[in-house]
Design goal:
Elements lengths: L5 H40 L2 H18 L6 H28 L7 H8 L4 H10 L3 H12 L4 H8 L3 H19 L11 H9 L7
């Protein structure tokens, strides 16, 4: 059997090394930043199971469909972009049910739940009432600490639209949180608390 040409052997070795490189990056990304990615996805979609699915699909997109990278920060950026796109798209389909979810709870269940909510839970309930784009803009602005121009680029909309979504979202959040006993303790500040009290690192 004829030996493979030297060039083919070298090329095959380079491909193998590249594969090993991005596989190591994937392992590091999951180990070091997986929890932060899940928190980011959870804020965008409001459900733990959906958040896990979003991150898993985003990893497939970043490391399967796109050309894999061996740069950890670039890999994280790609995954977050995929999570954001999927969350906004999926949120449009779930928005109607999310807004009426409280109607499916019986009075006794709703009463029991209301006794156990804290500020962070109240905020997530309020976020669930926003439109997908409003929610994405608020999360990126106050949790991701992203400037308006970056948010506009990520979502493919104008800076003016981002400002409008954020303004409308804050108005709606204020109204929802005002239904509680301490309306002044909620709001975007709790997003910062969530970023710093769970693991100490911010996503964005």
């Amino acid at each position: 059997m004829a030996a493979a040409p030297a060039g083919a052997t070298a090329e095959g070795g380079a491909v193998a090394r590249a594969a090993e490189g991005w596989e190591r990056v994937l392992a590091r990304l999951v180990a070091e930043r997986g929890d932060a990615l899940l928190r980011y996805a959870h804020l965008l979609c409001g459900d733990e199971d959906d958040a896990a699915d979003l991150v898993q699909s985003a990893l497939v997109t970043a490391f399967g469909r796109l050309r894999p990278t061996t740069d950890l920060d670039l890999a994280e950026t790609r995954v977050k972009r995929a999570v954001l796109a999927a969350a906004v798209d999926g949120g449009r389909r779930r928005a109607r049910w999310r807004r009426s979810a409280h109607l499916h709870l019986g009075p006794e269940v709703a009463s029991a739940e209301s006794e156990r909510v804290d500020r962070r839970y109240d905020l997530r309930v309020a976020l669930a009432r926003l439109s997908p784009r409003e929610r994405a803009c608020v999360v990126l602005r106050y949790y991701g600490d992203q400037p308006v121009a970056v948010i506009a680029a990520e979502l493919g909309i104008s800076e003016g639209a981002v400002k409008r979504y954020v303004s409308d979202a804050l108005t709606r959040l204020t109204g929802v949180l005002a239904e509680g006993s301490e309306p002044s303790t909620g709001g975007p500040r709790a997003l910062d608390d969530d970023a710093t009290t769970r693991g100490g690192s911010r996503v964005g």
